[in-house]
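TICKET: design request
STATUS: open
ATTACHED STRUCTURE:
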């Protein structure tokens, strides 16, 4: 049997090892924690996710993997359907797009502008930023009130530095196929509502990671790989790390290494907290201009969580990575007091990811194409959230597809 080295024990590396366990003799190298950004920290009675909060149940590959390894995801509480944005005051988000027209989230002028979306010509021949796309199709007010918080919540980024084509390829495709988002979503009978429901596991994402490892026949080694030459004994190599780590490991291939370095990352600090009483009972709150990008009301979403988490920084406030623990917690507490009027936490917990999430910047798709073409020249394979999809679901799907290629 051929020997395969997988560098990186996040969901991308681990799911790849699972899919290929009967085809290769596999060794997975991880420098830190199994699960990478999918890691649950237990602090007394509290479970705090260091990264991934959950996943939508609209990706067949993730659900299939859960079934194969024998773990049952749990659905988020009904409260998770209630979401807010904070724009000097808390505003409840409509749960269905039609409710936009009756809610007070947008001015009358803003609502009329949204309806004009039906008649805006599509732009398909060139790439656009999320900002350009949103203002062009839905207007400035929608852009400010919806896209700024959404980008912070999903990508820890800002719409002006994010590529619409790379970050939301499905929406871009709908625009180009149907001429308008509303026409397309209507034809697809989606009505613009989310296509899946949020799920996680009873004891957090680490429960899944541990089970996945348990069901995978591979050598799991805690070791930082500093140079690809350390893997000379293997027939095939997959790098499933962050792009900047891949760049370092592959430094001997200068052009490939330089291309990988071009994928920027945004920092995120996560502060776990609990207070005597917390409202609103909901999934959470996204902000438009605070240093805290959002507050996740974990205790109202999944069992055993008990606390809440504030997510700070991102591209909006990248200085977060240079603050010390005390300063980060103070920043979170100031925002929490402003937004939900809570003070004097019973507990505080902090995780700082200096390089949390890759930014899908303008030209990201071309950059990824160049990276993959260059890597293939050296028989090196890459997978992970830096390339073709940022979500937990995307990582599993992409590793499945790579596994199918490596089986051939
Ligand atoms: C704060 C935060 C919240 C998120 N929330 C969600 C969410 O709710 N839902 C969702 O779908 N997605 C979420 N994501 C995105 C999600 O984390 C990722 O898409 C996915 O978990 C990434 O998995 P990965 O295996 O590609 O990368 P990672 O999890 O980053 O794994 C890469 C691994 O490689 C290891 N490594 C790096 N260099 C080396 C080396 N030289 N040698 C050995 N090992 C090395 C690292 O230690 C790490 O474990 C979130 C991300 C963050 C940061």
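STATUS: resolved
RESOLUTION: sequence designed for all positions
ATTACHED SEQUENCE:
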């Amino acid at each position: 049997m051929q020997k395969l080295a997988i560098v990186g024990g996040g969901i991308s590396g681990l799911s790849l090892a699972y899919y290929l366990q009967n085809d290769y003799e596999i060794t997975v190298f991880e420098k830190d924690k199994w699960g990478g950004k999918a890691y649950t920290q237990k602090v007394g009675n509290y479970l705090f996710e260091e990264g991934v909060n959950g996943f939508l149940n609209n990706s067949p590959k993730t659900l299939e993997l859960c079934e194969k390894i024998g773990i049952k995801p749990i659905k988020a509480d009904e409260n998770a359907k209630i979401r807010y944005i904070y724009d000097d005051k808390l505003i409840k988000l409509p749960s269905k797009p039609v409710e936009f027209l009756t809610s007070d989230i947008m001015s009358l002028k803003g609502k009329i502008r949204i309806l004009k979306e039906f008649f805006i010509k599509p732009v398909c021949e060139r790439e656009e930023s999320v900002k350009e796309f949103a203002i062009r199709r839905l207007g400035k007010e929608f852009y400010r009130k919806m896209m700024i918080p959404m980008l912070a919540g999903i990508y820890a980024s800002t719409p002006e530095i994010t590529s619409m084509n790379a970050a939301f390829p499905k929406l871009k495709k709908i625009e180009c196929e149907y001429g308008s988002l509303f026409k397309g979503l209507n034809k697809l009978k989606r009505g613009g509502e989310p296509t899946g429901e949020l799920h996680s596991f009873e004891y957090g994402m680490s429960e899944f990671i541990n089970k996945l490892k348990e069901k995978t026949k591979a050598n799991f080694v805690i070791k930082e790989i500093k140079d690809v030459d350390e893997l000379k004994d293997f027939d095939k190599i997959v790098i499933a790390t962050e792009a900047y780590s891949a760049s370092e490991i592959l430094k001997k291939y200068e052009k490939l290494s330089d291309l990988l370095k071009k994928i920027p990352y945004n920092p995120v600090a996560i502060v776990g907290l609990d207070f005597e009483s917390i409202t609103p009972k909901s999934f959470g709150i996204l902000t438009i201009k605070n240093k805290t990008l959002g507050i996740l009301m974990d205790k109202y979403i999944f069992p055993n969580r008990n606390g809440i988490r504030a997510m700070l920084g991102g591209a909006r406030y990248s200085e977060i990575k240079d603050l010390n623990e005390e300063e980060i917690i103070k920043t979170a507490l100031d925002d929490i007091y402003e937004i939900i009027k809570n003070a004097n936490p019973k507990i505080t917990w902090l995780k700082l990811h200096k390089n949390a999430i890759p930014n899908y910047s303008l030209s990201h798709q071309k950059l990824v194409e160049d990276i993959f073409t260059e890597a293939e020249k050296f028989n090196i394979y890459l997978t992970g959230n830096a390339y073709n999809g940022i979500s937990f679901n995307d990582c599993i799907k992409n590793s499945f597809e790579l596994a199918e290629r490596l089986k051939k």
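CLOSING REMARK: The first strand starts at residue 3 and ends at 7. The chain has a mean pLDDT of 96.
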